[in-house]
Write a structure and sequence with these properties.
This protein is α/β, with parallel strands linked by helices. It folds into 2 domains: 43 residues, no CATH class; 189 residues, 3-Layer(aba) Sandwich (Rossmann fold), CATH 3.40.50.2020. It is built from 9 helices and 7 strands. A 5-stranded parallel beta sheet has the order 1-7-6-2-3, sandwiched between helices. The protein has a two-stranded antiparallel ribbon with strand order 4-5. Helix 5 packs parallel to helix 7 and helix 8 runs parallel beside helix 9. The N and C termini lie far apart (52 Å). The structure holds zinc ion. The site of zinc ion has 8 residues, from helix 2.
Length: 234
Amino acid sequence: MIFLKLSNILNDINKVLLPPLCFGCNARLYRGEHLLCTLCRNQLPLTEYNLAVENPVDRIFYGRTDVSKAAAFLYYSDEGIVKNLIHYLKYRKQQQIGTFLGEWFGSELLQAGMPARPDYVIPVPLHPRKQRKRGYNQVDLFGEAMATLLGAEFRTGILVKTANVRTQTRKDRSFRWQSQQDLYTVVDREQLAGKKVLLVDDVITTGATLEACSEALKKGGDTEVYIAAMAVVP
Ligand SMILES: [Zn+2]
């Protein structure tokens, strides 16, 4: 009890000494601002892609895997607000950024109209060893927020990563594709039969990871796959 009170007091002191900063530009946040300052929030490069109308993210997967529809929320670039947000989310334990993006994107998708209501929202899994090291999967809270908004069930543990191999290598695309195919597997295939799955990830670059996950989900079954990512490299 005493420890609890003490930690509350320390928390308050912390807030005074270390005021919350914007994850986009490090400026001090003011009352009513959450995670991002007003300037960064207004400058977020929204793609305005959704799951109702064809967009460039769909085209990434054409001829590679049978994805029903794909979209990403933000444009990713090598510097700037989006890169900073993803960095804090992935490497600095700022998991609440996932919830923030998931709620925003989820409501945009709903507003644009969904082609179908997903049964499950499934995150691209990390290898268990990597997840233990990081302490969390950076996509989980994004997926949970979307699942809540879309009336779907958030499911982990069905799609799993079986080998701990770097996904971004300098190898050419066909080699990478082949080496990716066996990295992901489905544990309980029966649960996916006839289901619509919204697969979620952080940043789409080549699409190789999502392609491999989609193939694993669809293997030998009638599972429909949709994709929603936080960002895409344009
Ligand atoms: Zn800012």
